[in-house]
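Task card 7
Instruction: Convert sequence to structure tokens.
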Amino acid sequence: MFKGNPQLPLSGTQDRIGVEASLKGYALMRLKRRIERLWRDCRAQDLVEYALLAGFFCVAAGAAIPYGAAPRIRAIFETIETHLQRVIGMS
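Output:
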């Protein structure tokens, strides 16, 4: 089947479509490379591990505080708030 003379330039529409397709292919190739690089990169692994560990400690601390202590803790913070308001002069 005859597709045209390869020596002749493509029409504007055909040229634009070809350029867009090649740009999409290039963008996908760069995205694939970037994802592969992130997958192999271990620099942030320690940060993620520390964040998970901190989250675990927060959950454990929340579970360890007995329910009876909550009103006492609230009273302590209300007392601190009252004293700060007096010092600032907002009472």
